[in-house]
Fold each of these.
Amino acid sequence: MRIHTGQKPFACDLCGQRFNRKTTLNVHMRIHSGQKPFACELCGQRFKRKTNLNSHMRIHTGQKPFACELCGKRFSHTTSLKGHIRVHTGQKPFACGLCGQKFSHKTHIKDHMRVHTGQKPFACELCGQRFTRQSTLNIHIRIHTGQKPFACELCGQRFRHETSLKDHMCVHTGQKPFACGLCGKRFRHETRLKSHLSVHTGPFACDLCGKRFRHETRLKSHMSVHTGQMPFACDLCGKRFRHETRLKSHMSVHTGHKPFVCELCGRRFSHKNNLNIHMTIHTGLKPFACELCGQRFNQKTTLNSHMRIHTGQNPYACELCGQRFRYKASLNSHMSVHTGQKPFACELCGKGFNRKTDLNRHTRVHTGQKPFICELCGQGFSQKISLNNHTSVHPGQKPFGCVT
């Protein structure tokens, strides 16, 4: 009857909170006394209520009796199921009283409130950095321990964050799940989509091409594409760049600073992108395939360059003699014909070369390195052309036939 009348005759002497049952008051009193009479026999953790102990036991048994009727996912607690249901309904019943932002879980709003208060109660014992959430601290700890618990089942690459693994899987599947609702362009990562949206919605528009930007500084930087202006110059070699970030990245050429290390072979890189590309050597991953011949590549830029073999496109022209080239590197090497410049010098004998590949080939004269191995007899060679010539020594290997 007290449910209908609202009567709560049992009051807490310490805080004044009232209850309609004496048993509920008795349970409440444990908040003040700190009493936790129900202990887990497996791990010793203690609880104020027996229902909490029963729920906790499912951690050990793996029991998940509560199933979602929409997707079949199972949960060990009914509260977890209720929270999950909001993924399907989109319901966000918990609103922040300060900014109005809405959340699907009550725990999320508690975490969000720290944005307003600036409170960061979770501190790293190793470096002192503080965090608003325990889960964020747990992830941060992996920086110190080097732990990467999330492994790709296809190539074995490991990740510190589950979201990083999910993003990585798109490399294997080719899936681009995030689509722009305005132009249909698709992206592997949600961050790339958000960045792309500024092209349509940004308040600062380019008068020449109509491209839009979120920040005026980005628009000013973009204008150099049309003007050809390169305002950022290297003080050491004079090379110029459109963007300050490119200049900062370039400086590692002079300083030799290479902060990104391959954990498998120890090779160091000045840029994280270069490390990521290098990792494909170990994994054998080549996610970019030519649609015309099926050849696969570990970089999109390499695939784009390869496509010129099929199209016959030679976009790079020499301004002095008009000769055209498929690759920019080929044009740069060709320019030494006109200038006589040989920028790549051997550190051991001083001999100069106009191409880095020629320098690398020459260096083997000093090191004795013979990376090209005959599969038939095991003999090594310093140059690939020498290996190709050698194969004719073996019986049945006569690659050059008379046409007539």
Amino acid sequence: MLMKVVSSRLSPAILPISLSFSRLLSVKYSPQRLTLFFSISSRASSASVESKSRVRVVSVVEKDTKNILACPICYNSLAALNIHPHGSVEAPAYGTELHCRTCKKSYSANETHLDLAVSSGIKHYTEPLPLSIELFRNPLVSFLYERGWRQNFMWGGFPGPEKEFEMAKEYLNNVLGGNIIDASCGSGMFSRLFAKSEHFAMVFALDYSENMLRQCYEFLKQEASLTIKKKLVLARADIARLPFLSGSVDAVHAGAALHCWPSPSSAVAEISRVLRPGGVFVATTFIYDGLFRFVPFLKDIRQEVMRYSGSHMFLCERELEDLCKSCGLVGFTCVRNGLFIMLSATKPSKIIAPSYKEL
């Protein structure tokens, strides 16, 4: 049985390329969109661009719009500290923070990603996490994920990242041009595909694992296109406490991740919260119906597996449909191939009040 966790993934190795906060620029995007993206800065000589370039985290804020990034504790907007009169953020990455004016919590950036998890900055408090989360925080597992691990999913009917990406685009037609979260992004294979497609203004690659985000950063450095780097934001975040304002995101994608979340209902409810009306949720996962449905006591066994591993076993399509519906999503649809299932659901565009007779 294949079990996978995508709530987390980063190795403690020190990168030769550092991240620094640069200018606060005004960019024309659609309303209510703050973007933080990677850009390549080069020095005078064109011959030394590759060797001396630095990947910088750049804050982009459109005038008269709100920052869609939010504190994962109170869900109020985050503001950048150390903003100078001329619009530049001069502090280095390690010294630059996003600050919540409501709960006074600060979130910092390191050389590879923003840390927007509730646990950001914790020094002494620790809590046990499910095996499904800790597995992909391991540096070796994170390194192997896109170098053979993910390819093994084909035995279960997964058609492969490129084909899965094309399938997902069909569900996302109505939100093209908006922003998208690649939840539990792992090493960022889908994040890069979304950015390369140029169908989205911004791609937020989120994962709980620092090591997976570091792998994502390493793959991103190998990309030749500056456009891809500009469109991608790497951030550590908890799927059950997404650092976005309610109703601010156009789409959420979760590739081979749903079964790895300790509480799929909490995660999908949080996804529903951040989606704007008409926003789309697309996910792939394993579904163990067929012969597995007739195994005696399988549901009891599933409870024990979930208790110790933190992974979830879905046994029928109706279970996934109920999950989406209970979290406020409608229009459930799916496609199947063996154990592989791709599902989609939408945030209602309008809230229909019950009629007097229904009351």
Amino acid sequence: MRMAEFLGNANAFSVDLRSGYDAVQASGQKIEFGELRNITVSRPDRLRAESERSDGTKTVAVFDGKDIAVVDFANKVYATEKQQGNVDDTLVHFVRDLHLRFPLAMLLTSRLPAELQQRVWRVDYVEKTNIQGIPAHHIAARTDTVDFQVWIADGNEPYPVRVVLTYKDSPGQPQFWGQLSNWNFAPKLVEDTFVVRIPDGANKIAFAAEIPTLPSKARRSSSAKGATK
């Protein structure tokens, strides 16, 4: 809870996230993919996340208090949308409404303490250890759908150093892990920090969640008609 309150009360911060996640195949085999992210948050209503996937695809997502913009540099496309509210509201909108991946989004919200109080029903202290050269407390916790471990830096700044999530109700119980480094709670924010530069020649597209889809019955009917031509 000290970690949750520390992060939830921070006015601004930046952090690097190196993560990996399992993709469970039909055979049951797990294949791991990875991602690098640099995240900057300035409360109440500024957010920037630059990411590079293991296949080299680079993207950036920015919320400037009025608009969301996401750019995919590999495919030279971008999408924008009006957005009101704060960082907490925007992260929920990213994940729930726009169906965008945003690993460990809850750690970036000011309501992290309340979320943990509501969801976590068991916590165990594992050990005091050393991770990435940082003395840390290893904690294991459980929710209804996810078991997680977090290594929390010892001292006056109890930030998370490593997080492991196990999706225990999903086939194969896949895991997500994240190494968090270079925490900065007084980041240098300049005018361009929360500005997106659209690459020359990039095409504007809609977010996938905004594209209307036909009801399943209509899609089947349409496919059947096409098959008879």
Amino acid sequence: MSNLTFIDLFAGCGGFSEGFYKEGFRSLVHVDFDEAACLTLRERMKYYNYSQKEIDKAVICGDLTKEDVNLQIDKVLEDKQIDVLVGGPPCQSFSSVGRAQDPNAMANDPRNYLFLNYINILEKYKPKVFVFENVSGLLTAKPNGNFIFPQIIEEMSRFYDVCDDKKTILLNSVHYGVPQIRKRVIIIGVRKDLNFTSKDVYESVKKEYFSPEMEKKGEIGSLLKYRTVKDAILDLPKILPGEGQEQISFKPSEVNTYVNQIRQENFDLLYNHEARNHNSEDRKRYKILSENEWQLKDLAEVNPDLVHHDPKHFGNRYTVQKYNSPGTTVVAHLYKDGNLFIHPDSKQERTFTVREAARIQSFPDDFIFKGSRTNQFKQVGNAVPPLMAQQIAKAIKKFI
């Protein structure tokens, strides 16, 4: 058993943690203020054989801006040695979508400064390495008229060697075997008294798969082909709107290398594979869109009666996931509706289930999402893909 330790702030359901568990790190603290996400974190610690006492101490369900939560963290960590701090403060205020929908471009959103709570913990416990995750919009966000990215780098650089090269720190999950295009800012910091640098760690985070973008440019080198939506979900039971259950017995009839990686051979259950109910109009819409791999504007020309939104403005409002490509970025908005994730099989006339979204995010099949289905979608959309987290954990482990 490895004696390397980590803590996870703004942990969500634990996508980051999952990658570190897989590399043998031991969890000391997870903090999140969403109760359903905390239930999921506890469930997963049980899976990894933590005692009930350890789980009760380690999962702190509360707001990191509050003093009592910080005191709770102090109590659990006391004089323990922390190797790695991971976490991604909520990012709605840095996302371009969030900024576009807010009249003040989210300038007054308190979430802009949650990174300071992360930095407080970082400077208090001084782990050897930290990993900070956020949306790519962080690089251009100007909440108070000034770019926030240089401010974050400056704060982090007091005790840590940090890389601020935008090309280096923008990682795409598709390169790490995740069947999804998801570009995220990953800032890795290494404590200045150690004999390696953040650049060393980035160079060890191995890209194994080429992206569709690289394929177009003919820059695939010796990399493997990206994984697709088909690789991720084709083996799952076919269900119609309103069908499916939270838990069923299930053995895939055939498995590919991806399913092999996220599903243990002797495992015979399937969780969270329950489809939303859709009205007859939606079902028609999904059926035609997926049959033809159309966008809303194509549908508007043929069946204008099925289109309530202006396709010029809502062109991407309805997106059919394509079997032969990686999935588009799984977003937390899924909890409101699944229109960005219409199932490619037109016979199923529906949007994705929580399990299908989790497959696109690279969660193992034995990972159980707790809480209401609405909240489960939110947990999946907010998570760091475990396979990408695992590559980062592997690289860090090499040096510490």
